[in-house]
Specification:
The protein is of the alpha+beta class. It folds into two domains: 5-141, Fructose-1,6-Bisphosphatase, subunit A, domain 1 (Fructose-1,6-Bisphosphatase, Chain A, domain 1); 150-264, D-Maltodextrin-Binding Protein, domain 2, CATH 3.40.190.80. It has helices at 5-32, 39-60, 91-95, 167-180, 190-198, 212-224, 249-264; strands at residues 64-68, 72-74, 78-89, 102-109, 112-120, 125-130, 134-137, 140-141, 154-157, 183-185, 204-208, 228-230, 243-247. The chain has an eight-stranded mixed sheet, sandwiched between helices. The longest helix has 28 residues, at 5-32. Bound molecules: D-MYO-inositol-1-phosphate (IPD) and calcium ion (2 copies). D-MYO-inositol-1-phosphate (IPD) binds at residues 86, 88-91, 158, 188-190, 207, 209-210, 214.
Length: 265
């Protein structure tokens, strides 16, 4: 597979940031036992990774804007292009020494996500997609799963924190989806959840309250792997919206229905 110049820029930036994260993750076990815990160290790792990403992207595409989890919005001279950056998706996993987290980088062009890279530095899995060019995992073409019966599906999700007002509604959704599928997984990195749907490891995924940097890259991965992306009710997905639901096209409707029944219960 020959990478486009744009994809080369994106992968290089992500790999550079991931190198630091992998090194920092190696320190986490030692910090687990200290009373203060690894909190500050992880925040530093997160900030360092974001700075590396911003720096390399600025060098390669000086006019593009940024939407970053830590640094916020930075307008670029070129108003039609914006990077969406999550330097460390799966912070809680990272903090607890759980080897499941990622770097996520998406590119928006005129309001549409056109390219995405998600990298898991521990498993060395690189998920990439560009509009019209397909989705790949370490150079292997990706397709969403072929399952057609929701009862056989494994579905990913994210659980809202206890402080969130929508937690009780979510618990109903979780109960309904659990009863209608083979199983539900809360893996802890939304960017990887979406990548796993693209790879056919998960048959679908839903979550509310995510931000553009969590899912920009994952959205294009799912679409380019043949999956369907909507909001949580099955309606048109909007970046400014609050919910996302993705699945292969056969079970998407069944998952929408299960969630609808949950909310009405
Ligand atoms: C979080 C992860 C998690 C999702 C949360 C996100 P962070 O991102 O993607 O899977 O459930 O809603 O905030 O904080 O680790 O970058
Ligand atoms: Ca995130
Ligand atoms: Ca993050």
């Amino acid at each position: 597979m020959i990478r486009s110049p744009l994809m080369t820029v994106m992968v290089d930036a992500v790999m550079k940031a991931a190198k630091g994260l992998r090194r920092d993750f190696g320190e986490i076990e030692n910090l687990q036992v200290s009373r203060k815990g690894p909190g500050d160290f992880v925040s530093q790792a997160d900030l360092k990774a974001e700075a590396i990403l911003q720096d390399s992207l600025l060098k390669a595409r000086p006019d593009f804007g940024f939407v970053m989890e830590e640094g916020g919005i930075v307008e670029g001279k070129d108003a039609s292009h914006r990077w969406h950056i999550d330097p460390l998706d799966g912070t809680l996993n990272f903090l607890h020494g759980m080897p499941h987290f990622s770097v996520s980088l998406g590119l928006e062009r005129e309001g549409q996500i056109v390219a995405g890279v998600v990298y898991d530095p521990i498993k060395d899995e690189l998920f990439i997609a560009e509009k019209g060019k397909g989705a790949f995992l370490n150079n292997r073409r990706l397709r969403v799963s072929g399952r057609t019966d929701l009862m056989e599906c494994m579905i990913g999700t994210g659980i809202p924190s206890s402080a969130r007002r929508d937690l009780p509604t979510y618990m109903k959704e979780m109960a309904h989806v659990t009863a209608r599928t083979a199983g539900v997984r809360r893996l802890g990195s939304a960017a990887l959840d979406l990548s796993y749907v693209a790879a056919g490891r998960l048959d679908g995924f839903w979550e509310t309250g995510l931000s553009s940097w969590d899912i920009a890259a994952g959205i294009i991965l799912v679409r380019e792997a043949g999956g369907f992306v909507s909001d949580g009710t099955g309606g048109e997905y909007k970046m400014s919206g609050n919910s996302i639901l993705v699945a292969n096209t056969s079970v998407h409707g069944q998952l929408v229905q299960a969630l609808k029944e949950a909310r009405a219960s």
